[in-house]
Design brief:
alpha+beta, TATA-Binding Protein, 6-stranded antiparallel beta sheet, 11 helices
């Protein structure tokens, strides 16, 4: 009996060591269906978060693909009113998490509901710094999710992220005279919006974060806007085996220009994050993601033509 306990403990330790540190997943018993995406949203709102969108994806899944393997599959985007401000002021690229994404799902036949979001470690790796503030954000998000329902507890994904030999942010800069920046960003946004549908992307939400910066009396930026973008074909196919991919979708494209800068910066977390954090091995899924990445890069690079 003693040896059995030792072996079980070692197996548990091995699983824990191999667990994914990039994606945080919570589960809660939900046989009665009382824990809904709306409940998660309300818990976040009570804890200082703004929720621009909490989108039920089962409807679009059924409409476009005629089926779904989920009773619930929502993509929620949120940002913390105070901590996000601290992040963006310190590192403009942190706007790629303004808002950040959460996946909420319950598979057909499963009595448990799950919530997934990126860890501070993952966010810091993507942006390239600000670990203490991201840790503060992670702690706040954990607290909010845990408050959503009794019995909400963290579970570990049974695989480790893999290293990728590629930057995790895609960045495009567009020349822009500071005196004409507001007109230029309007043209940039029109070009992006008109180019999304032909490449299969949806503009899930848009945020004029510059207004909040103005309210906070921050004068670092001429403008700061974000688009939350989603490609239904991508999330549908990957979520079937990796529902935790909702931690990456929608993806936030941050668009900003600092005062006295002569260029507009456009930046977003790219698909190599999916390759790394989800440890994707399916070649067809990889090709699907690479096509989405290529199409988005072409659209943004067209701004310099």
């Amino acid at each position: 009996m003693k040896w059995i306990k030792i072996v079980a403990a070692l197996l548990f330790a091995a699983i824990f060591v191999q667990a994914n540190e990039n994606i945080i997943v919570y589960e809660v018993d939900n046989a009665n269906g009382k824990v809904t995406p709306k409940v998660i949203e309300e818990a976040l709102a009570k804890n200082g978060y703004v929720i621009p969108k909490n989108r039920d994806m089962n409807g679009p899944f059924k409409k476009q693909f005629q089926k779904t393997s989920f009773d619930t599959y929502n993509l929620l985007i949120a940002y913390h009113k105070k901590i996000t401000m601290e992040l963006v002021v310190k590192n403009a690229d942190a706007g790629v998490f303004t808002p950040f994404s959460m996946g909420i799902w319950q598979k057909k036949g499963d009595k448990k509901l799950y919530v997934a979001f990126l860890s501070a470690k993952a966010m810091s790796q993507i942006v390239g710094g600000e670990a203490p503030l991201f840790q503060k954000l992670e702690a706040a998000t954990r607290k909010a999710v845990e408050s959503a329902a009794p019995g909400m507890k963290e579970v570990k994904l049974p695989y480790q992220p893999v290293k990728v030999d590629h930057p995790l942010l895609t960045r495009v800069t567009v020349e822009s005279d500071p005196d004409e920046a507001e007109d230029n960003i309007d043209e940039i946004k029109m070009t992006i919006e008109s180019g999304l549908k032909p490449i299969g992307f949806i503009l899930a939400s848009q945020l004029s974060y510059g207004m909040e910066l103005d309210e906070a009396k921050n004068e670092d930026f001429l403008f700061y806007d974000t688009y939350s973008l989603c490609k239904l074909k991508v999330i549908y196919n990957i979520a079937r085996t990796h529902p935790e991919a909702g931690a990456f979708a929608p993806c936030t494209l941050a668009m900003y220009q600092k005062k006295d800068a002569k260029e507009t910066t456009l930046v977003f977390p790219n698909v190599y994050n999916w390759f790394s954090s989800l440890t994707l091995k399916d070649q067809k899924l990889k090709e699907l993601l690479l096509k989405a990445q290529s199409d988005m890069e072409k659209l943004l690079n067209s701004l310099n033509e």
